[in-house]
Amino acid sequence: xxxxxxxxxxxxxxxxxxxxxxxxxxxxxxxxxxxxxxxxxxxxxxxxxxxxxxxxxxxxxxxxxxxxxxxxxxxxxxxxxxxxxxxxxxxxxxxxxxxxxxxxxxxxxxxxxxxxxxxxxxxxxxxxxxxxxxxxxxxxxxxxxxxxxxxxxxxxxxxxxx
Length: 162
Hints:
By secondary structure, this protein is of the alpha+beta class. It contains five helices and four strands; from the N terminus they run αββααααββ.
């Protein structure tokens, strides 16, 4: 009774992940009259984006799940929860085009290949390297540091341009 919806969502997210000050936005309020056959339920949903490597001790009730697996088995989700997940996915995909939202899913330093992989996973399609680099050229800047990975030549590390 003493907190706003945003404060409540941030508190629950923090208790489930151990993280604070992460990207969180109100997605939508679902109010279809028959969305729960047991009673009238109105739900305000949120979308949070987290670099999974930053998540500490996860509450036993929370776990990472594969998006494709969840959506392939959407009949196992309660009520209209597949609609909520689908709406969040579409919001994220659309925001890639006009915002820097993707950087909430990245570590502070990353390679262009890692960033491109995140774009490709979200968009569910392969991107041509030159086209991708043009898209993000004004969003990132090189650090001058490199990551060595296996037998390949070292990859330059980048950060989000401020």
